[in-house]
Amino acid sequence: MPPDFSRVRFDPLRDYAGVLLQQGRLLLDADFNEFVALLDRRLRAETSDLTSFGPDPDHAGVAWVPRQTPDAFRVTLSGGQLSIGRGRMYVDGLLAENHGTELEGFDPLLSERTGTADTPYAQQPYWLTPDPLPTGGTYLAYLDVWQREVTHLEDPGLVEIAVGVDASARWQTAWQVRLLEAAGVTCATDDEDIDGWPELIRPSDGRLSTHEVEVDDDDDPCELPPVGGYRGLENQTYRVEIHEGGEPGAGGTATFKWSRENASVAIPVVEMVSPTVLRLASVGRDDELRISTGHWVEILDDRTELDGEPGLMRKVTVDDDERTLTFSGALPAGLQPADADEAAERHLRVRRWDHGGVVSDADGNELANLDTSSAGVIPV
C-alpha cells in the first residue's frame, strides 16, 4: 500500500553519494526517502557487480547464492510435496531471504534467531494461497522476487504506540517460488527454448508519457478562493497505476487509475456488515484525506495483492455515523472475511482513487464516464 510522500526526487543521473542533514533545519520526508532510494540502488548495483563473472550476452540478469547459505531456495521433492531451502539469495541485487520454519535456531554470523526447518511450498510467507501442486509432468521451479510498499495497514506494528500514529512506512523484499510447465525441457535446454520463459522474465515495456494541456483562465486550478486558512498550493504526489494489464487502445483490456495523494488514503475494514456494506475503522483523517460519497475505492487484502491481482473497484455511499461504505456488486466469496478477526488477519482494506466524472484525452475526446461506469477505471 503506498505511503504518503510529499515528493519523489531521487535521480540516479545526478550521481549523488549521500544525503547530508544540517543542524537546526527541518527534517523532510523527501530527504530521508532520497537517501533510502540512493542506498537501495547502490546496494543492488554492488551486489550484482561484485558477483558478476564479466560480460556475457547469455546472462541478462544476476542471481547468486552465497557460500554462507549454500542451500538457499533449493527446491526438493519428497512424498509429493515441495520444500524450499533456508538461506539468502541475491536476484538482480535484491536480497531474498527464506528464514524457514520452527524459529528455534541461532545464526552466529548475524547473531539472530533463525528457522531450523525448510519452508513447505504451501507455507510461503509471501504467497498465502499458492497454486496447487501439479500431479505429474515436468516443471521449472523459479524464484520471483520484488519489492512492495508496506504501511500500517499491512503491518499494524508500524503504528508508534507512544503517539498512536504511523510515522513511517517500509520497503519489503517479497518472494515466491512458482512453477512453470516445461514439457520436454532438460537441464541442457537453453533458456530461450523453454516455452513461456522469455515472456515471463521480459521487463515491462510500458512507459508513462506526460505533457501539459492548456487551461482556460476562468478554470485555473491554481486560483484559490479568497477565504481564510492555508493559501499556498498543496504538495501532492500523483500516482498513475495500471489496474488491468493487456493491450491498449480500442478493444484492449489495459486500464488505469490515478490518485493525487499517491493512493495513500487507505483505511482498514473492521467488519463486513453484508457483501455490499463494509464498516471501516474511520472514514478518514479530515475533510480532504477521507472517503466520501461518490468516490471510487479499491477493495483488496493481502491475498489479492500477493496473488498479483487488482482489487475490486466500487463507487461508494458513505455513512459517517456508522463508518460504513455501501456499494453495488457484492464482494466475491474469496474476498469476504468470516468475521472481524479474519478481516484483520487478511488486512482487508479500501483505498481511494481520485478519478471521476468524464475523462477526456488532450483533444477533448471522451475516454470514460466514471459517473456512469460500472468498472471504475480508465482505458489506456
List the helices and strands and how they pair.
Elements: H1 29-50, E1 63-64, E2 75-78, E3 81-84, E4 87-91, E5 94-98, E6 105-107, E7 112-114, E8 119-120, E9 139-150, E10 159-160, E11 165-166, E12 170-181, H2 197-201, E13 239-244, E14 255-259, E15 266-274, E16 277-280, E17 296-300, H3 302-306, E18 312-315, E19 317-319, E20 324-326, H4 340-345, E21 349-353, E22 358-360, E23 366-369, E24 378-379
Antiparallel strand pairs: 1-4, 2-3, 3-8, 4-5, 6-7, 9-12, 10-11, 13-14, 14-24, 15-16, 15-21, 16-20, 17-18, 17-21, 19-20, 22-23
Give a verbal description of the structure.
With 380 residues, the chain is mainly beta. Strands 18-17-21-15-16-20-19 form a 7-stranded antiparallel beta sheet. A 3-stranded antiparallel beta sheet has the order 1-4-5. Strands 2-3-8 form a 3-stranded antiparallel beta sheet, with no helix packed on it. β10 and β11 form a beta hairpin. The two termini are 23 Å apart.
Mean of the pLDDT scores? 89
H/I helix tally: 4
Shape: globular
Helix content: 10-25%
Helix and strand element order: HEEEEEEEEEEEEHEEEEEHEEEHEEEE
Question: What percentage of amino acids are in beta strands?
Answer: 25-35%
**Oligomerization state:** single chain
Query: Which stretches are low in confidence, meaning pLDDT under 50 for 5 or more residues running?
Result: none
Q: What is the makeup of the main sheet?
A: 7 strands, antiparallel
Structural class: mainly beta
The count of DSSP E runs of length 2 or more, i.e. the number of strands, is 24
N-to-C span: 23 Å
Q: Numbering strands along the chain, what is their spatial order in the largest sheet? A: 18-17-21-15-16-20-19
Rg on CA atoms, Å: 24 Å
